[in-house]
Amino acid sequence: MNKHSLQIALAYMSVVIGGGFASGNEVLQFFSGYGVAGVAGSVISAVLFAFLGMQIARISSVMQAASHKQVLYIMFGKQAGLVVDLILSFFLYGVGVVMLAGAGSTLAQQFGLAPLIGSVLMTVLVIGTLCLNVRGIINLISVVMPFLLVLVLAIMVYSIYTSSAAVEELTQVATEVPVITFLGADVPHWALSGLLYASFNIAVGFPMLAVIGGLIKSPKAAARGGMAGGLGLGFLIILLNIGLFTNLDKLQGVEIPTLMLAQNIHPWLAVLLSIALVCMIYSTAVGMFFAFSARFAAPETNRFKVLSAVFAVVGLGLSQVGFTKLVGTVYPMLGVVGLVLIIAIAASWIRTRNHSAEELASEAKRLS
Questions:
Q1: pTM, 2 dp
Q2: Which of 75, 77, 231, 297 yields a CA-CA distance of 20 to 30 A from 260?
Q3: Which chain regions cross the lipid bilayer (predicted)?
Q4: Structural domains in the chain plus CATH codes
């Protein structure tokens, strides 16, 4: 795997592994509540991550896409592509709201603060970053990603190794864990939950992956990078799921599961993880609110700054619904958008796999 493939793989993983993933709340609701079968659900997500990452990166590279909208236009046509783009932007805003709630839950669980305090602090940081253009902070926060991954992996491996609960006991506890809801009802099967989890995350990662794939001249290198990133994500999800399942007896009613497991190992480890989580939540929140505000105003303009502040404050109000409830509501609905993308990606790949770069580029230019 060359450096271009590695760049795509790391970028793919970075955009998906945000505060929600590392908190363990997503994985707990999507997989752990199904017991041992939830591991099979996480394997389904892993396979889909690899396939979808490979196809998005390949198609984007072949057509040298400069924007994810070009890829959407290729898959849906100009009018339908615009509608999908707007719907996608709306739900990505919802992810930003979830991050504000996640900041409140993290600080509440670790430091005993009222959830509103953490959410307000994160909202102020987001507004300050978007209005004052503190780009260096975002670059600095990106350094936290490797540290966070190593920390979470170490916590999971240690927690799996030291778990003493019997599988039968854990399976019984799993029946009491709230699973993800979809259209007002619990998702009835682990396989469907695995599909929804992959579709949600591909909806979140699609815009960045499409743009980065377009920067790579070799479609094969881009495809390898997308597949490698998807397999890496799959490995992390499976390990995190196993770690949470083997400790379900300690995690009932906990909003930030990984933080609780860190606390059980050592209080200072929990402090380090909480700081890393807040940094990742901050980075994800800024990215989501920036993308949403950019739909209505050019970045760095006064209009953009005002709208960013308004959207963030509205998001603060919405975030008070609660972290766990928002994850269980926003993510499955975004998963519906992701399902549409998955179908379109597969159909587009079948339709365009034999097209030349010139043919795809010409079609993209016609539709843009």
A1: 0.78
A2: 231
A3: 32-59, 80-101, 113-133, 140-161, 195-216, 228-248, 268-292, 304-323, 329-350
A4: 3-354 (1.20.1740.10)
